[in-house]
## 1
Amino acid sequence: MHLPDFIFHQPVSVQEAIGLLNQKSNAVAMAGGTDLLVELKKGIRRHEDIVSLAKITELKQITEDKNNLFIGACITHSEVIASLLVGRIAPALVEATSKIGSDQVRNTGTIGGNICTAASCCDTAPVLLSMNASVEITGFKNKRIIPLRNFFTFNKKTILQKDELVTRIIVPKPGPATGACYEKFGLREAGSISVVSVAAKVQILEDTFVDVCIVIGAVAPTPKISRQATDLLMGKKVSEFIEKSQLLEDVGDAAVRDSIPIDDIRGGAQFRREVLKVMVKRAIIRAVEIAGMKN
């Protein structure tokens, strides 16, 4: 396999990159290129113009304000892991990012690229969905902020238009007594693609679940919030919630009902359902424990 011929552009600003995407009929943006270059080699995609985002410094910043954490779309996975700011505000995102691929992939691949590939098994999206994250989308004519839950339309499909870029990920800072975590099941210990993944976020005040979000990955066309599991846990007493309790079993079953798994080389649909139930229960227990440590 070899890369086909293309024109390689290296803009130094978001507006220059968007201008190229708007002008060129078959251009595509490239952040780390860990997915795009493989697909070009395999002939899955073909583009005459590649617009690299590697030299756009405004896409490589991690900042905060009173309410939110802002992560530039071209921050690499390794930079997410190393960031003290991300670790303090969103440790579950660090956990998820550390489970992506190999060192080489984490050093090159970006958080924006991971989201924009829109694969059902992507690792950062479940945690970001659980934390009610949004994406800042900059286009040729305007800028908009869209909740991440509205960003994915199908497997490897998003609402992004041809002349638009995801420029930042916006993560609301969690409230007090909030715990979040990420669980991933793959076929090997390292460098594996998710067969099933789960992100869980809970906020516990006065022995009550006052905020809950359960997200399931690799068991539907896109990572998705399990509404049934989330609604079932919301408002319940934590004292009712112990390992192997009926409530915990019911929440696991609810997540399975929200899943739409497929049979593929990594596992059958029924296998995924069985693993999903275990992973949901495990994630919720861990999230509760983390929330308890913050009380």
## 2
Amino acid sequence: MNDIKIGNFTIGNGHKPFIIAEMSGNHNQSLDRALELVDAAAEAGAHALKLQTYTADTITMKGAMTIDDKNSLWNGKELHDLYKMAYTPWEWHKAIFDRAKEKGMIAFSSPFDETAVDFLESLNVPLYKIASFENTHHPLLKKVAATGKPVIISSGVTTREDITESIEVLRKAGCKNIILLKCTSTYPATPENTNLRTIPDFINSFDCIVGLSDHTMGVGASVAAVALGARVIEKHFTLRRADGGVDSAFSLEPEELKSLVVETERAFLSLGQIQKGILPAEEKSVQFKRSIFVSKDVKKGEVLSADNLKVIRPAKGLAPKHWDEVVGKTFKTDIKAGTPLSLEHF
């Protein structure tokens, strides 16, 4: 799979994880708060800021559904009302994107219908994200792929066959750069239903860069995902969960987002390569290993034994692995206690 270059960032297996801060509806219908979120994401070190581009009427219709799930954050809300509360006004997009660019971040969005793609094209976004609930919306996939820009697609609520088919649709429609995110579409997701072992399987199966759209609490799942090969991490974030908002309950606060950036980078750097010897950085520490020392004054002709030898630090004498070979031999000369044992001594 090839690296993907977006602005000043390169996404690929040999590069540090690309961290996407998902604003979603956590602006709570305030543009000032939205711009604060941009600033906070940049300060935390996120590489990209993502919006969602829809209106209540482009995603559903009044009276279509009321959520009836006691475990849902949105239980009892009508779908149309929820999206009306959560959507990001389209007239805000340019101001938010401009602020993100000023702060050195990539700014892009998830379109939820074809009109949103046309709108985002007018803002010249550098890539697109397909949300899990749209990942089998083939007309939308074709519309996005036709732009020729990289596409990130989440895998939530899909079968393996769905994913295979959707990736094929994107490629046939002209998309050459695809990033597939493992995603569990529950809000929040639990560690137990995150199934990160899917990540290496995705890498082997789909020949594309793989990442994680992480709806769990905290940063542990994302760090583990990087160790398993994820190179893109997407997380919802907010200023303070206590402020409320449609996604606030499972969103990171700025300090946590900074931790995500730092810890996923550490996870990536720690992967390194297969180590088969002593590292150059370890060479000074070799002296602190053990070796065989003469532990009391001995005379020529005395037998080497546990009574006059000891395995201690530092590693100035024969290695401990030679213990059985030297015990029972005789000293060639008088030796003082505290002398590292060498071949010349017996």
## 3
Amino acid sequence: MNIKTAKFVVSNQNVNDCPKENIPEYAFIGRSNVGKSSLINMLANNKKLAKTSSKPGKTRLINHFKIDSFWHLVDLPGYGYAKASKTEKKEFQKLITDYFIYRKQLINAFILVDIRHEAQKIDIEFMRWLTTNDIAFSIIFTKIDKLKQNGNPNEGVEFKIEEYKKVLLENWEFLPKIFLTSSVKHIGKENIIGYINSLNQSISQK
């Protein structure tokens, strides 16, 4: 299951300037340096679609990409960028908040989480905020290829996921949809695209 066409549409700093076209929209967001641009490029089969950088905090705008002439993939600024100034952080927060509150075309938010780390407070708080505002979200664990077990079962993918689920179940009665990915090894692409296609189909049938 592959994306056939992925075209850049627009970048902007104001949700009011987002495309007016009434088609399904899926937002990708996470802490800085979580591998968001690499994941987007993997999904789109285009290494140059989203700009990647060794420096975190590269994405500063709302970026819309039209996928297969049918839906929008939205690349949002990362949150939790330590080197950003207080003013920049406030600007990013307003940009992100406005997008999620006012963007009616949004169907689902994909929250990217680096699987190598324990559940971070900033991620859980953001998920709580989405829930409070009735915004559907899924979790994408990135960089599963970077886990090195070295014979330690407590360092494996399954262990990391189960530990994260425990934290989620302390806050939610039901678990969100979860995806495991590696942009390097192209793992998880078909599952994510298949899920988006299934949501699009359910929308078109209404």
